[in-house]
Design a protein that fits this description.
The N and C termini lie far apart (123 Å). The protein folds into three domains: 29 residues; 59 residues; 224 residues, 3-Layer(aba) Sandwich (Rossmann fold). The strands form three sheets. It has a nine-stranded mixed β-sheet with strand order 7-6-8-9-5-10-11-12-13. The longest helix has 45 residues. It has 437 residues and is an alpha/beta fold. About 3% of the residues have low confidence. The protein is built from 13 helices and 13 strands.
């Protein structure tokens, strides 16, 4: 018969232990009494009795109830939160679908607007404005035609009177029927030619630059006979702009002369050809010369450089009859004189320019914010000033700007315009900048 295990034996291996031992000496079993496991009770709330807590050594906060969380309530809360999120997503989806439909409707409306014809245009007003512009443009030609027509009508009326006098038997002294028939036939032939042909644009007194926006700025072009100063810093394309005006004038039948005091003729022609202006396009109406070429042609003449240049220009004008002259540059011409170039010398030079009776474009390299009459007298002696400058933009870009400071006898636009060359021609536009001008 097996005895019940003693309370002084190891419950695992049966080895004897002493009271108070915390661990078995054989197997190492933990002999400490285990704490009682807490009993899990699910309660909605626990109420405390304040009277029972008064005699205790520790005090408990006075509260009416302590909420004890339950797993079932936590799951319900999460389910409600998920349901709210699902409803929010459904509402968001509905809003997005409505927005998509609205965008689609607007796209259809815009497509319909593009397909529909534009607003009605008053053709009568456009036609009337066009007729006014044409009448103003061809007014000199029409007046000349009207004068010729009046003259021919007078001759025709006189011929008819003579014929009537012959029919009634009156004697007309000095009437030749053959001559009368010839005159009548000539009158009708001239009238038929004038009525059947398009009117030709006569000289309007302006030198067109054939740079569309620049002609608009100048009110149609540069008045003939003016001495115009092209003033600007290096790199503002003064030489290229004046050569462009000279080249396009020659292409359209107006001869010109370009005189460079410093740069060689070969260099100028090569540079301008790369800019889309070959010399061959001018049909021999544009002549470019430098100091070396001029010296060869003026070998038989004596005098200083200033006298030789003026004599050469005068002789070339008498020989070729050029109508436009460019001097590049005024500062280089002043440097050729043996003495200080005074204000009177400058006035004499500009008076000599005007005595030529042609349009003169003078390149100047002086740079000044304020025109000084003593230091820059050419600004006051010239008929027109084209100011050219390099303008630094806020984003580290640089633009070339040009404006007409003055042009006597012309209604010009004095605003600055941004100017750039695309390799073939100049283009002007109002500059894009956040700074007032």
């Amino acid at each position: 018969m097996r005895l019940p295990p003693s309370k002084f034996e190891c419950p695992r291996c049966g080895f004897g232990v002493r009271p108070g031992d915390e661990q078995c000496g054989r197997c190492g079993e933990d002999l400490k009494p285990k704490a009682a496991q807490p009993i899990q009770v699910v309660l909605g709330a626990v109420r405390l009795d304040r009277r029972g807590a008064e005699g205790a050594s520790s005090r408990i906060r006075s509260i009416e109830a302590v909420q004890v969380g339950r797993p079932e309530l936590s799951l319900e809360t999460k389910a409600e939160e998920l349901e709210r999120q699902e409803k929010a997503l459904q509402e968001r989806e509905r809003q997005l679908n409505a927005r998509a439909k609205e965008i689609e409707e607007r796209s259809r409306e815009r497509s319909a607007e593009k397909a529909e014809p534009g607003p009605n245009v008053n053709m009568d007003e456009i036609r009337s404005r066009l007729m006014e512009e044409l009448a103003h443009h061809f007014e000199p030609e029409l007046e000349a035609f009207q004068a010729q027509l009046d003259e021919k009508e007078a001759e025709l009326q006189e011929a008819r009177l003579r014929l009537q006098m012959l029919e009634v038997g009156q004697e007309v002294v000095g009437v030749d029927e053959v001559e009368l028939a010839r005159i009548t036939d000539e009158i009708f032939r001239d009238l038929r030619d004038q009525v059947g042909s398009e009117p030709k644009l006569k000289d309007t007194g302006l030198l067109r630059t054939y740079i569309t926006k620049l002609d608009e700025v100048l009110g149609g072009g540069i008045p003939e006979g003016h001495v115009v100063l092209f003033n600007g810093a290096p790199g503002t394309m003064k030489s290229t702009l004046t050569y462009t005006i000279l080249h396009r004038a020659a292409v359209n039948g107006t001869p010109g002369l370009y005189l460079s005091v410093e740069q060689s003729r070969r260099s100028i022609l090569r540079q301008m050809a790369r800019m889309g202006m070959p010399e061959a396009d001018c049909n021999g109406l544009l002549k470019v010369t430098d100091m070396r070429e001029m010296r060869k042609e003026m070998a038989e003449h004596e005098g200083n450089w200033r006298e030789l240049i003026l004599s050469y220009v005068r002789a070339e004008q008498e020989a070729t009859g050029f109508k436009v002259f460019v001097m590049d540059s005024l500062e280089s011409f002043k440097a050729l004189t043996e003495h200080c170039f005074s204000r009177q010398d400058l006035k004499d030079l500009f008076d000599w320019f005007k005595s030529l009776g042609i349009t003169v474009l003078v390149i100047s390299e002086n740079v000044s914010d304020d025109w000084d009459e003593e230091g820059q007298g050419e600004a006051y002696l010239s008929d027109g000033i084209m100011e050219m400058l390099m303008r630094e933009m806020t984003d580290s870009r640089v633009q070339r700007w040009v404006r007409c400071v003055k042009m006597r006898g012309a209604n010009v636009d004095n605003r600055y315009y941004s100017m750039f060359h695309d390799g073939k021609e100049f283009n002007l536009a109002l500059p894009l900048t956040n700074q007032p001008f």
